[in-house]
Amino acid sequence: MSPGTADEPVPPRRALLRIPARGALVLGLVSAAGLAMFFWPLFAAPDPAAIAHTTDAPLMFVLILPLLIAIVLSELTSGRIDSKTLAMLGVLSAVNAALRPLGAGTAGIETVFFLLVLAGRVFGPGFGFVLGCTSLFASALLTAGVGPWLPFQMVAAAWVGLGAGLLPRRSRGKAEIAVLTLYGILAAYGYGFLMNMWFWPYLAQGTQLGFVPGDPVLDNLHRFALFTVTTSTLGWDTGRALTNGIAILLAGPAVLAVLRRAARRAAFDAPVEFGPATLR
Fold first, then answer.
1. Cα gap 155→38, rounded to integer Å
2. How far is CA 223 from CA 7, 206, 218, 237, in A?
3. Regarding predicted confidence, which is higher, 74 or 4?
4. DSSP 8-class letter at 279
5. How confident is the model at residue 7 (pLDDT cuts 50, 70, 90)?
6. Closest CA to 199 of 50, 96, 77
7. Does 126 or 118 have the greater pLDDT score?
8. Buried b / exposed e across 200-226, counting CB within 10 Å, b at 16+?
9. Do the Cβ atoms of 16 and 123 come closer than 8 Å?
10. What is the pLDDT of residue 53?
11. DSSP letter string over 95-158?
12. What percentage of the chain carries pLDDT values higher than 90?
């Protein structure tokens, strides 16, 4: 088949894992629960003698998995996704899980996020959300990284994939790579911000930048922002941001082309728009 011409109409873009009203409601509930689990210590002081989230993390984990299954089953039973879509989700989750140990988080270098951003871009916000959760879950099993931090990592990574799928769709070529690179950098700092919040109220008490039980929320957030900048942003988060930006700049065009070609050849029921030059 030959490429289409610039005059041919472009089909409307739809994400592979489209989120109808009920799916959006489930995603909203998961996100609301995630925000509550990250930020509740600001409103109800945690026990300083407790280890960070050892009691509520299992509850969070038990909550996430059924809701993710509910999203997929809802789309599967409604005919919006099929076995090919699920296979793609499984393959990308496995690839991401295998990529993560390459960086191992050393100096903030993490190789799991750039593929998550690119896949969310190609396949849509719902797919990106689920891929973020499954990627972090699979990589934790692979690297023996299961702990109270895991459900928080899953939700934070899911938001990274979700945000990538919600980026404006009009840009292509160099402009698209520039948008994705900027998003990858900002998402790296956002992920670091969230993951600092999961332990900061427990481990930083008694210091000048620590959590003060009973203080106004804005005062604690101010101390948390200073804590993040001085302990994380200038080191780990910047390393993650540089990894994301460089990986997307160098590998982004090729990976996007491979993902879009795979979607075309799989003939997904929900087609993806790739621009006027889409192969027919």
1. 10
2. 56, 12, 9, 18
3. 74
4. B
5. very low
6. 50
7. 118
8. bbbebeeeebbbeeeeeeeebeebbee
9. yes
10. 53
11. HHHHHHHHHTTGGG--SSHHHHHHHHHHH-HHHHHHHHHHHHHHHHHHHT--STTHHHHHHHHH
12. 18
Residue found by looking up tokens 């030059």 in the block: 277
Q: How far is CA 269 from the centre of its chain?
A: 24
Main-chain phi, psi angles of 202, to 5 degrees: -95, -40
Task: For the chain, give every domain's residue range.
Answer: 21-266
The span from the CA of 15 to the CA of 102, in Å, is 30
Of the pLDDT bands very low, low, confident and very high (cuts 50, 70, 90), residue 213 is: confident
Average pLDDT rounded to a whole number, residues 84-96: 86
pLDDT for 182 beyond 90: yes
Residue keyed to tokens 């009691």? 55
* Residue whose C-alpha is closest to residue 243's, from 98, 137, 100, 134: 100
Q: How many CB atoms lie within 10 A of CB 165?
A: 24
The 3-state DSSP class for residue 241 equals: helix
Cα–Cα distance for residue pair 50/54, rounded to 1 Å: 8
